[in-house]
Amino acid sequence: MARSHLKLVAPTEEKRTVVLPTRRKNAELRTREHLTPTEVERLIEAARGNRHGHRDATMLLLTYRHGLRASEVCDLRWDQIDYSGAVLYVRRLKSGTPSTHPIHGDELRALRRLQRESAASPYVFVSERGSPFTTAGFARMLERAAKAAGLKIKAHPHMLRHACGYALANKGHDTRAIQGWLGHRSITSTAIYTALAPNRFKDFWRD
């Protein structure tokens, strides 16, 4: 009987080091994490040129004015809006503190028009199919508007919330009041806006 020429070879182990791509720091991507009021105005105006311009511009306006997170504006429902009292009942996510915000006239007019033109849905901001707007869809819309507005900074939805905080701090509002407006549990989260407000130094070098 012929011998087999096959040999058993012991398995060998090869250690490989997998190098995962590291995410660049925000400071390397953007010089700041907020938009200025002028940039927000340009962003909203650019959004008006979209296919659903009124919806998109209104979405950006409310996000900025009320310091909403992307998930909060996408989850916004009509029963949170009281037209007669001109108030918005803000439901905060991420363990934030809920609050009641006054709504300005331009916001009320924009919301009334949006409600007349939109499909029958409990959500304020919906897609063409009538489903709630997604945070990813909101981010894409904002990026397109930022590009159309010619903004040099890479914009993302949370920059509107930061823009709200800095704008209120620059107007000289109390830190505790801004904390309540943004729904921060801890005032340390709010202090970053007042700490960097330029009006803190307005009397420096003045006789």
Structural classification: mainly alpha
Strand content: under 5%
User: Order of strands in the sheet with the most strands?
Assistant: 1-2-3
- Fraction of residues in helix: 40-55%
Distance between the termini: 111 Å
Computed Rg? 25 Å
Could you characterize the architecture of this molecule?
The protein is extended, with a radius of gyration of 25 Å. It contains nine helices and three strands. By secondary structure, the chain is mainly alpha-helical. Strands 1-2-3 form a three-stranded antiparallel beta sheet, with no helix packed on it. Helix 2 crosses helix 6 and helix 3 (53-65) packs across helix 7. The model has no long low-confidence stretch (mean pLDDT 86). The chain has helices spanning 26-29, 37-47, 53-65, 70-74, 105-117, 135-149, 158-170, 175-182, 188-195; strands at residues 81-82, 87-90, 99-102. Strand 1 (81-82) and strand 2 form a beta hairpin.
What's this model, at a glance?
By secondary structure, the protein is mainly alpha-helical. Helix content is 43%, strand content 5%.
Secondary structure topology:
Layout: H1 26-29, H2 37-47, H3 53-65, H4 70-74, E1 81-82, E2 87-90, E3 99-102, H5 105-117, H6 135-149, H7 158-170, H8 175-182, H9 188-195
Antiparallel strand pairs: 1-2, 2-3
Characteristic terms for this protein:
5% strand; 207 residues; three-stranded antiparallel β-sheet; mainly alpha
